[in-house]
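User: I'm putting together notes for a lab meeting next week and I want to include a structural view of one of the chains we've been expressing. I don't have a solved structure, so I'd like a prediction I can at least talk through. The sequence is below, exactly as it appears in our construct file.
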Amino acid sequence: MKAAIFILLLIFISGCSGTLQRDTNESNNKEVANNNSTGLVQPLVTNEVITPSQEIQYSDKDIEKIFLPPNFIVKKFEIVHKEKKIEFSMDYIFNDELYTILNSGITYSFVIVYPEPVQSILNNKNSEIIPGKISSDGRLNYSLSFSEVVDSEISEEQFKTIQDNMEYQLHVLNSKDEVFHIFPTFRYMVDYEEGKSDDLFYK
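Assistant: Thanks for the context. Below is the predicted structure for the 203-residue chain, given as structure tokens.
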């Protein structure tokens, strides 16, 4: 008798479980159908990589605004006499802001205009156009060098005039070889101190 009651109890429990499972499935199916009917879109998980925005495009105008101290500083200007040749060299440095613009592909160059007493000795008014340098490795310090060949031997007095004169002008040119800044007496720039030398003269 007890065995019969136990068997009936198992049959009853199984029937309830099956009914509950069917109700749950029907409820889930109705929810999916309702979502589809209302136009809801389930979020999708993707591996899409968001690329950075297009790089900023710079122009000559951008460097013309900031090709000034403290963004650009001449650190050294030297003149050496070797036989019938006068050799000039200049070390200069950029800050990060100006370097970033130049490193985007903007070109620049220099011309050094000689003081009148030097012009008469060298028989030349200025240097040739000297291409500016920029390195993609983040380097901020650069140097340039050029020379002037003279027809005759320079006397010590003449070389002293060339070497000691402070009136050399530094012209900065854009990619079209147009002068956009003139630094008269740029040799004084080696003494530039940010915050103390803001009155450095330029055109």
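A couple of points you could mention at the meeting. The domain at 71-191 is CATH 2.60.40 (Immunoglobulin-like). The beta strands are 72-82, 85-94, 109-113, 130-131, 141-149, 169-173, 179-183.

User: Perfect, that's what I needed.
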